[in-house]
């Protein structure tokens, strides 16, 4: 087994163990050789993901304006991440308000669509630091 494949297995096993530890139904996938975890429905699951966020170079959070001025987390956000060459790295509906990803170092365009309204952000990802982007719909 190559070192890279072994690392992917360890990351995936770690994400699944967090899911089992908290009884959460976290969706952990390897898509186009990108490891990511998506979830955060319910307080326990959100806390578990926030605790793990620091080991992922990219963190995305999705929320909307709720009652009054309070923000509410949202799921079912269509998420697309493009690399610097314009290739689609991730293209899926989110299964929760928190999305954590291990992406190779580089520049990315992140597009999030919720209820027909789209927001786009550019982000520089590096394993040396944690980048957090929030998408908020009012």
Note the main attributes of this structure.
four-stranded antiparallel sheet; globular; Immunoglobulin-like; disordered N terminus; 138 residues; alpha+beta; 10 strands; six-stranded mixed sheet
Structure description:
The chain is of the alpha+beta class. It has one domain (3-137): Immunoglobulins (Immunoglobulin-like), CATH 2.60.40.10. The chain contains two helices and ten strands; from the N terminus they run H-E-E-H-E-E-E-E-E-E-E-E. It has helices at 3-22, 43-52, and strands at residues 27-31, 34-39, 58-65, 71-73, 78-83, 88-93, 98-102, 106-114, 117-125, 131-137. Strands 1, 2, 3, 4, 7 and 10 form a six-stranded mixed sheet that branches. A four-stranded antiparallel sheet has the order 6-5-8-9, with no helix packed on it. Helix 1 packs antiparallel against helix 2 (43-52). The relative contact order is 0.20. Residues 1-7, 9-13 and 15-30 have low confidence and may be disordered.
Strand and helix layout:
Elements: H1 3-22, E1 27-31, E2 34-39, H2 43-52, E3 58-65, E4 71-73, E5 78-83, E6 88-93, E7 98-102, E8 106-114, E9 117-125, E10 131-137
Parallel strand pairs: 3-10
Antiparallel strand pairs: 1-2, 2-7, 3-4, 3-7, 5-6, 5-8, 8-9
Helix pairs in contact: 1-2
